[in-house]
Amino acid sequence: MGFETLTTRRLRLALLARQGLLAPVDLSLPRAIERFGGLQTQYAPSGYVGLRARVAGFAREDLTKALQRRSVIQGTLMRSTIHMVSRSDYWPLAAAIREQRRMWWLRVSRHSATDAEMRRHAGAVERALAGGPRKAKDLKDELGLDSATWNGVGLWLDLVRVPPSGTWERRRADVYGLATEWVGPDDGDPVAGLDLLIRRYLKGFGPASVADVASFTQMPITKVRLAIEGMRLSRYESEDGTELLDVPRSPLPDEDTTPPRVVFLGTWDATLLVHCRRTQLLPEEH
After folding, report:
1. Whole-angstrom distance, CA of residue 167 vs CA of residue 174
2. Number of structural domains found in the chain
3. Which CATH number does the domain housing residue 204 bear?
4. Domain range spanning residue 220?
5. Is residue 286 part of a domain?
6. Considering the chain, what percentage of its residues have pLDDT values greater than 70?
7. Is the pTM of the predicted complex or chain greater than 0.85?
8. Separation of alpha carbons 127 and 3, rounded Å
9. How far is Cα of residue 281 from the mean position of the Cα atoms in its chain?
10. Least CB-packed of 15, 17, 40, 97 within 10 Å?
């Protein structure tokens, strides 16, 4: 293909550098989380552990305050899992993946609910939350929703975890609110949002293949290919000849760079879930 070949070691170093794991970054929490492509935090303490490893001078209360001040938002986003993202990224990312998440849920759910039924349930939850955030258990009991339906409702109605829910101090509080009330009006555009999502992913995890992008975003490969056609991206290839995409001028350390430190990563850290095999971040037996 004529592109520069990147070894597995160099891809691994690129991942570590972009995730702040070669050296911690000196950025505000919202900007740092944008750089990392969001943080996967269905186990809430993972966000704290991950930021302690990645951000210079991070203290536990910094993230709790950011969640309370709404500069960092926690909600169900990429791959229908809970992520922390910056407030400015929330609506664009939600718009990018909204329809695809619903299609995925309808396809794989054993609950066999229709789109119309899920819209009806979402409307009931929206009305129940009109007075402010509430505990998930109270909502499910009041509306007669089983766990499967409740999990699906969040794909038809944009909900966020509201502090103390999702914090180190009260990770099991399970308090939810309407994103339109907690974050602000929905101003996301699906096309611009997908462009942003792909760029956030490549800046945080690249260089990566189209298949990698599709896996992270839960988008069909054909839709990813269409989206990248209009994007200005650098191109490389892996040792096995796979084409890799990247955002120009993103960190790409030299082959002889030596990781200078040991870091702790939290449960469900995306660097392990998404990239452990491609970059061989951990031995296969782990």
Report:
1. 10
2. 2
3. 1.10.10
4. 5-21+190-277
5. no
6. 94
7. yes
8. 54
9. 19
10. 17
